[in-house]
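Narrative of activities, Objective 1.

The group set out to show that a structural description can be obtained from nothing but a protein's sequence at a throughput compatible with the screening campaign. Below is one input-output pair from the validation batch, recorded exactly as produced.
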Amino acid sequence: MVNKLLNFIKHLNRQRNLKVKPLKLAIKLYLLNRKKKVRSLLTPQDYSSVAILMNDQGIGDAIVTSYLIESLRKNAFKVFVVVEKRIAFLFDEFISVDGIIFYDRKKKTELIKEYLGNTEIDVVIDLVDKGPNSVRRSQIIKALNPLHTIGFNQEKYKLYDTSIDYHDYTSHISKRSQKVLDLMNIKVDRVSYYLNIPPCNEKSVNDFLKPYKSLGKKIIIFNPFGSNSARSFSNSQIEIILSFLSQYSNFITIVVGEPDKISNIKSTNNIIINQMASFFCTVALVKHSDFVITVDTSIVHLASHYDKKMVCVYNNRIIDNKFINNFVWGPNYANAIQVFTDENVNTGLGDLISNFDINIMLKQLENELHKL
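Output recorded for this entry:
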């Protein structure tokens, strides 16, 4: 009886928190915005420095945003990124920027002014709609104190001087960057990512692949794991796929992913488990491959950059109850074949790829491998 009562109280608390949280968010955003009385006018010709908010984002976001970063830099803007340390390594050689501004969630915006020093930011770009992280982003904007801030669907909040009205939730995420570039009077012919593999990692991968390529073997990259279990193959699915691929003696399949996730997968005939821990070695492996097999993760965008023949599995997830992930974060190039799960649960996690009929994937792989 006591346990039932305690569980009931916990349930009530959870329900209360769910209702109170949006109200708290609204109050905090109101307080952060109330001191700004007038929005500034957008005058791109007067700006020389830009900061892009990339806190709360991951590797795939960084790869896609490299298009915006390089387009701005080619047009004489100094570009800074606001990032957490977990992805800061990407902006050393891999994605070129003019400066990194670290954000630490525990210390909030205390370190931002320290990293800025005497640097003044003219424009802040926030590519994300209002959501659970809006308070954090507003606090960062206040700390950066730019002349002008560009956001998406932020008309209610005066911290954003220009709010782009955007509700095309089936278009690729790069379209947002295009909208910003249009505002800044920058014309770009096509969407292209700008990535630079460190020479030492490129050499390591070339040396690793050389013996196989000298025998005429073609290279398959297989990435079985996404950022969560919903977007990952199960162990039995992985075994079936690798057993299928091992039959192709003219191919070498290299399994890539986070070392702790792929360490339990066994090497067999024509199957190799990548032992090079550096993410940049994985990038180089994709670059020098002939075919890529992956779930929905950053590998998709790497394959896009290098225009690799690819089969990728997407699980129909809906982001923030509006973004159709299959399109918004899809591969967005002709050489990619998307395979979709079919449960269509319409949630933020999407269908479980572990429930996916693996025979559909095998049939698609058989068709494509015969063409190589």
